Amino acid sequence: MARQHRHAQDQQASRPSPASAQGLDAQASLGNAFLAETLASSAGAMGLDAGTEHGLACNCQTCADPLALAQRAAEEHAEAEDAEAKSEALAEVDASAASEDDADDAVLQAVVPGTGPEFPKSLGRTDPDTAALAATIPHIGFKPASQQPTTGVAIQLQTGPVGPEPTHPAWATPAGDTVSGKQEVKHGGETLQYDVIVRVSADMHAQIVAAEDEHLADLHRAYQLVVGQAGRILGAQANTVFTAPTANEAVAKVENQLEADALAAGFNEFYALPEFWLDGLIALAECTRERDHKLWHSFDYDAAEFDHDNQQVVLVVNAGRTEIGKHSSAKIVDWNLA
Question: What is the DSSP string of 107-166?
Answer without folding.
Answer: --SPPEE---TTTTTEEEEE---HHHHHTTSPPEEEEE-SS--SSSEEEEEEE-PPPPPP
